[in-house]
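Memo to structure team: turn this sequence into structure tokens by end of day. - J.P.
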Amino acid sequence: MAVKKPTNPLYFKLFRTKPRKGDLRRFEIVEATLRLLKKDGSSAISIESIAKSMGMLRSHIAYYFPDKALLFREVVELTIAIGHQFLVERMKSLKTPKELLEGYVEATFQWCDEHPEHFYAIFIMWEYSIKNKAFMDLSNQFRKGGKERMQQIIMSGWKDENSKNSIPELAREVHNIVIANILEYFCSDSGMTTQQMAELTKRRIYQLLGDKFV
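Reply from structure team:
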């Protein structure tokens, strides 16, 4: 069966060189898994259901991913990498601390809007991290990346030299606000759009940071 190119162009930005045939097949399987996540949720996914959705034999999927946990791990790893690239692309023209802060929040909820299946993968990461160290490590990596990015943004616009030692904790709290509002968007009946949720998130962040942030 011919290998299809990934539909998401951000996949190719993850490679410095042209991806090999095996890489493209893995991406194809990951994309099929994400489509099923969006359609049916994680409990309905199996190696068999993925193979069926792709018109392939189970053995062809199992060659790359012998079990569902290994497949989900790669789905999560690629989702985190693609999400990072998505934010970089949306924020690369922003300059001032305020633009960067608001751009980060807006890009995050734009990511929610355009690729909800990626957040279903993030939810799987949190579910599996309760008992699986590999997923716990991915969760820690995800949180660390968000916190460090926010710490840099806050530091660039912080006006009070005497309280700069509070920035790491503030960055952690800001990241928690973003995650909490993502969960509220996906897991409640708030009726809010991603744009409305982004505006609410920005207000909550500015309340936390106060007048010490430009």
